[in-house]
Structure formats: structure tokens, C-alpha cells
Write a structure and sequence with these properties.
By secondary structure, this protein is an all-alpha fold.
Length: about 190
């Protein structure tokens, strides 16, 4: 399905999401096309809607190299793990856990092969979706240390918020369609 077709399928009550997607990704001025589309890919992977994911990945191929696409997917994967682990450490009152090594492989953080700022932006966006304050804070701080301003960071988070909302809206509409259709007896 083309991006335009998918966006046209967004229900009227979620028109703002459709309009925002076009603005925060397609008309992005704070981020490069690689940063914007990498963020959209990472956010789509983190959000988990198959239709949206397939559409965004297909569209991203016009803007991302294969290595950049793999790195965006890698950011979503590694942060899916890290966000759970570090959110647990943040939420528990038992300080002992913070003294125990994570013992989790995180090689992609060093071996992604793309611009480090881009990868950090994608990790920040996924961490925002997954609600891990520790990871958001850590990656946001790293970005600022690398000279990235708040406007650019917030632009990536805007993309993540719109992609995630689209994913949840499309899932809800698909679930509603499943409930509305009577089951057939074989």
C-alpha cells in the first residue's frame, strides 16, 4: 500500500494525525531526510502496526540506504530491550539492582555504521514511545553533548508521537472491523 493510500485510510476523527504525518516527516526542516525517515522507521517498528510499518519502510527506501534502514530497525530493537530493563531499574525502589551489571549485549550501539547523531535520535524517539525516562534522558543528553539542539530532538519526538498514534489508530480500526464481521462457520 502506498503512503498516500494508507494516510487516506485514516478515519476522519484522526485527520490531525494524517496532516501531522505529512508535516512532521514530509515537510521536515529541523531534521535531514535521513534523520526524519530513520525516525519514522524506528518509531513504526516500536509501535508494531504491520500495515503502517510496511508502508513506512517502503517509503523510506527513497530516503535511506540499506545500512541506514538496518540501523533504524536496530535502534528500535535494542531500545525495545533496553527500555524495559532500564525502566525497571528506574521504577524499583531497591537500589541493589542498579549495582548489578546489565549483562545484556548492546553491540549495535557501537556497530550500527551510520552517523551517531542519527542513531541517537532514533534511540531517543523509540525510548519516548516506550516510556523509558532513563533512556530518554541518557540519549537526549548525549545528543546535546554532540551539539544537537532541542528543536531537532523535539522534531524526532514529534515524528515518534505521530507514528505511534497512527499505529494505535489503525490497530483500533482493524480490531473494530474484526468485531463487526460475523464469524463464518466452516
Amino acid at each position: 500500500m502506498s503512503l498516500e493510500t494508507m494516510l487516506d485510510s485514516v478515519p476522519g476523527y484522526a485527520k490531525d494525525l494524517k496532516l501531522n504525518f505529512s508535516t512532521v516527516v514530509g515537510q521536515q526542516t529541523d531534521l535531514t531526510p535521513v534523520q526524519a525517515w530513520g525516525t519514522a522507521v524506528a518509531a513504526a517498528y516500536a509501535s508494531g502496526n504491520a500495515e503502517l510499518l510496511k508502508t513506512i519502510v517502503e517509503e523510506s527506501l527513497q530516503h535511506l540506504s540499506e545500512q541506514q534502514l538496518e540501523a533504524a530497525k536496530g535502534a528500535a530493537a535494542i531500545m525495545g530491550m533496553n527500555n524495559i530493563y532500564y525502566r525497571f531499574l528506574h521504577l524499583t525502589s531497591n537500589e541493589k539492582y542498579k549495582t548489578i551489571p546489565a549483562r545484556l549485549r548492546m553491540n549495535i550501539i557501537r556497530t550500527h555504521g551510520v552517523d551517531h547523531v542519527d542513531f541517537e535520535l532514533w534511540c531517543t524517539a523509540v525510548s519516548a514511545i516506550n516510556g523509558c525516562g532513563t533512556c530518554v534522558d541518557s540519549h537526549e543528553k548525549t545528543l546535546r553533548e554532540k551539539g544537537v539542539g532541542e528543536e531537532k530532538i523535539l522534531a524526532a519526538v514529534r515524528i515518534a508521537s505521530v507514528v505511534h498514534a497512527l499505529a494505535k489508530t489503525l490497530e483500533a480500526e482493524a480490531a473494530l472491523q474484526d468485531v463487526a464481521q460475523p464469524a463464518t462457520v466452516a
